[in-house]
Amino acid sequence: MKNAAEPKLFSTRQERELASLRDLSARVGSDSLLVQASNGNTSIKLDGILWIKASGKWLSHAMQEEMLVPLELAEVQESIRTGAEIASRHAQKDELRPSIETAMHALLRHRVVIHVHSINAIAWAIRVDGPDQLRKRLAGLQWQWISYAASGIPLAQEIEKAVATAPETDVLILGNHGLVVCGQDCHTAEKLLREVERRLAIVPRRFPKPDTTVLALIAHFSKWQFPDVDLLHALGTDAVSRKILKGGVLYPCQAIFLGQTVPLFPPAVVVSKFTKGLNGKDGTPPFVAVERSGVMLNEKMTSAERATLVGLAQVTQRTEESAQLHYLNEEEVTDVLSNGAHGYKEVGVTEEKANSPGEIKKFDGERKTIYHGNACVS
Ligand SMILES: [Zn+2]
């Protein structure tokens, strides 16, 4: 794939539209109910060029650093037709590589495409009855439900099939994944995004306050600390959330950043777990949830893991106990975590951690390399 960034004089109109996209990206990326860490992506098609967010970049940083990769749209479409890997040609060191969801952005005919991991949309997208529940809520909009498919070409193919007979579709609910909205310009797309969000909004369930008796014992162990976000305690104190988490993996980012199983322990065993170092074969988890007590964080937790955990708590707090949920199956989870043909292997991704609210520090480099696998974390 040729990078279309060769020196070129952009028209004032193009510059204005790109500025609008950066502005929109930063705004959407800064809303934790829409985007967590590097997930989500935006694009615009301008005169045969697809400008798309680069892999691994955070939308929230759109005004501070360059994150748009220009690609010849015709070449991307040809790659989709021939099944050629779009991303691998951008694998050279230090080069911005297009998002794993480039194929999806390219085949949607609208000029502006916004893909977000909306907490409210995900809370519907994990439900078996999601399509039925949304029929009334999204009535009058041109929307479609897309059953779960791995990010990249598989997801793009499912969307292509769905929009083939309904090209006017501009809202897509991605099963066990998130939301896509489209528009002819940034303003129209963002307005639609806000409208969809308004219709999908769910009031989070209240949850019992944390019991710090056991949590304080954990705090004595080095590297463990109380969370700076109260909401996280719901993963331990809220019985419905615990039941949901025990069911398995709800969406790819959960598996990638937080593991296949949630480290959820009864209070009686938690101290002995810590005394043994919590060093199972999967290593020390970024967090632990203690039944009826709350949550404690590993100080090595990265900012991406933290954002994903907050998102998970927000999703479970918006999910009713009575809802039958659709979890990713073993094969899908393995696929997400593998370095398969459809995904990226993000070697040497800059990891960060946030010990203080709002403060992002460079990670000290001790954590394992993150394999982003087949998921839209980029
Ligand atoms: Zn995604």
Task: Give me some keywords for this one.
14 helices, binds zinc ion, four-stranded mixed beta sheet, alpha+beta, seven-stranded mixed beta sheet, 35% helix, globular, 378 residues
Description of the structure:
The model is unreliable at 340-373 (pLDDT under 50). This protein has helices spanning 12-29, 73-82, 102-107, 119-125, 130-137, 153-164, 186-200, 212-219, 234-237, 239-246, 252-258, 267-275, 303-316, 330-337; strands spanning 41-46, 49-53, 68-72, 112-116, 143-146, 171-174, 178-183, 224-225, 264-265, 287-290, 294-298, 352-353, 361-362. By secondary structure, it is α+β, with helices and mostly antiparallel strands. Helices cover 35% and strands 14% of the residues. It starts with 11 loop residues before the first helix and ends in a 16-residue tail after the last strand. β5, α6 (153-164) and β6 (171-174) form a beta-alpha-beta unit. The strands form 3 sheets. It has a 7-stranded mixed β-sheet, sandwiched between helices. A 4-stranded mixed β-sheet has the order 8-11-10-9. The structure holds zinc ion. Zinc ion is lined by residues 39, 115, 117, 177-178, 376.
